[in-house]
Amino acid sequence: MAYKNKFKIAVAGAAEEHVCSKTATKLAEEVGKEIVRQGCIVVTGATTGMPHYAAIGAKKAKGLSIGFSPAATEIAHVKKYRLPYDAFDVIVYTGFGYAGRNLLMTRAADGVIIICGRMGTLNEFTIAFEDEKPIGVMSGSGGIADELNQIVKRPFRGRMNMIYSTEPKELVKQLIKLIKKEKGRL
């Protein structure tokens, strides 16, 4: 399978499911599948929770998933951070901890999808927002995702490059449209 010129879509979200809606894990897996079905590559923080479910979805759809780990090595990824590796086709061991990993992962992507989330997801969101990346928000998934519409109204500066949806297929479709517009491919 050729991966040249495919968009890379990062999935950022809660590593712990208890802060999310009851349907968030199913939504995350479906987002991973839809990213692949619509011809793109899944990128995540190589962690548990929503990013892991998105990578599982990518695997089920026979697509490629790339994880950016906070660890410097595979051993540290598994033993120190206690993070999964089974659903990822490629893991980049950054060695930069969570904050550094978030920056690299977000910058490596063409667009970002937020599903549920806590403080780390908010960090990934603000990096994407400041970089003016196209952002898709899975509304109704819980956590920070359901707060973003209000958050961006307060300190808004720059152009709004965000979309919201409760449907994975539509969210991915509209995000790809934003990415294409951003890259002049429409």
Q: Overview of this structure, please?
A:
With 186 residues, this protein is α/β, with parallel strands linked by helices. It has a single domain, classed as Rossmann fold (3-Layer(aba) Sandwich), CATH 3.40.50.450. The protein contains 7 helices and 7 strands. Strands 4-3-2-1-5-6-7 form a 7-stranded parallel sheet, with helices on both faces. Helix 1 packs across helix 2. It is globular and about 40 Å long.
Supply database-style keywords:
single chain, 186 residues, alpha/beta, Rossmann fold, 7-stranded parallel β-sheet, 7 helices, 17% strand, globular
Protein structure class = alpha/beta
Mean pLDDT, to the nearest integer, reads 94
Following the backbone from N to C, one meets helices and strands in this order, namely EHEHEHEHEHEHEH
- What is the rounded distance between the termini? 24 Å
Helix content: 40-55%
Percent strand equals 15-25%
In the CATH hierarchy, the third-tier topology is known as: Rossmann fold
Number of helices: 7
Spatial strand arrangement across the major sheet: 4-3-2-1-5-6-7
Overall outline: globular
Main beta sheet: 7 strands, parallel
Query: What is the subunit arrangement here?
Result: single chain
Uncertain runs are: none
The Cα radius of gyration reads 15 Å
CATH architectural type: 3-Layer(aba) Sandwich
The total tally of domains equals 1
Short structural summary:
The chain has helices spanning 24-37, 50-60, 74-80, 97-108, 119-130, 148-151, 168-182, and strands at residues 8-13, 41-44, 65-69, 90-93, 111-115, 135-138, 162-165. It is globular and about 40 Å long.
